[in-house]
Write a structure and sequence with these properties.
With about 300 residues, the chain is an alpha/beta fold. It contains 11 helices and 9 strands.
Length: about 300
């Protein structure tokens, strides 16, 4: 099965840019990479000015982008089983079925996670010719709901195909050889608090250590000059960042250690700092972040 690298974090922390940079880094290691955006409306489409859909489209060399949501994943899986567009419409596009699908708790998440984990050892659905799936996942709370969905289904439906499939999804997302987890934050109080909570909740049911990337880290070069007001801003920023990061590492990591997340300075166990890439162009930001991952993915 392709390695699945989930990327999540609070909205506004640069999660999508980090995911794009990570995908580029994998591609540069000669890994066939699919960057998957979980959304009904594509951010990448707006950022790159290119239309993306559930069908993978080329972005950069070695990287394709697809946008997946519950309905598109459910449709693809149903068509794979039924082998007929007519049968699909008969069973799934009537008003009763549409209503049941919309109100069924967790069904959309199951459809998405089922597609993400569809390769070996599960071997469910159409084959995907990729070595790595980088998943630009939902923000914190919805991301937890996505990963918890198969646990709820497996408890409610213990027998039959649905029970077997959800249990196999759990085995995949709990396997560190098949799945990795990257949580993106900023060195600010609210994002740090939310990331700390997400990491703690995630590791209660996923026995895989989640890595943390502190994005947009501003580190002034030695001998920085400029107006006094600007230098004072840099000093305040350094102090604020250091305090937020110290609070995070004390509360979650508890000590120094390494990480495989990039060339930026290490901040503690499983924590890395990603520099602030100053560019108005999303592609250039992704390229800059990719360099931080290049030798460590």
């Amino acid at each position: 099965m392709a390695l699945v690298h989930f990327v999540s974090g609070k909205g506004g922390v640069g999660k999508s840019a980090v995911a794009a940079g990570l995908a580029l880094a994998y591609a540069r290691r000669q890994k066939r990479t699919l960057l998957v955006e979980l959304s009904s409306e594509s951010f990448y489409q707006e950022a790159f000015g290119t239309k993306f859909s559930s069908v993978p489209s080329p972005w950069r060399e070695g990287v394709e982008i697809a946008v997946w949501n519950g309905p598109s994943c459910l449709r693809e899986y149903a068509l794979h089983l039924l082998k007929s567009e007519t049968l699909y419409r008969l069973f799934f596009e009537n008003n009763v079925s549409k209503t049941l699908i919309q109100v069924a708790p967790g069904l959309s998440e199951i459809a998405i996670l089922g597609k993400i984990t569809s390769g070996p050892p599960r071997n469910v659905g159409p084959k995907m010719p990729y070595d790595v799936l980088v998943v630009d996942a939902f923000a914190t709370g919805h991301f937890l709901a996505l990963l918890k969905a198969p646990f709820g289904f497996s408890q409610a439906i213990r027998f039959g195909p649905m029970g077997e499939q959800t249990r196999s999804m759990i085995e995949v997302i709990q396997n560190s050889d098949l799945c990795r987890y990257l949580l993106v934050t900023l060195a600010e109080d609210l994002p740090v608090a939310e990331t700390k909570e997400l990491k703690g909740d995630l590791e209660k049911f996923i026995p895989v250590k989640a890595h943390v990337a502190v994005n947009r880290w501003l580190e002034p070069p030695p001998g920085t000059g400029g107006p006094p007001a600007f230098l004072e801003y840099l000093r305040r920023t350094e102090k604020r960042q250091a305090a937020a990061l110290a609070a995070f590492t004390r509360g979650v990591c508890g000590g120094a250690g390494g990480t495989d997340l990039g060339g930026a300075a290490h901040a503690g166990e499983n924590v890395s700092r990603l520099p602030w890439i100053f560019s108005p162009h999303f592609g250039e930001v992704a390229e800059g972040l990719a360099k931080e991952f290049d030798t460590h993915v």
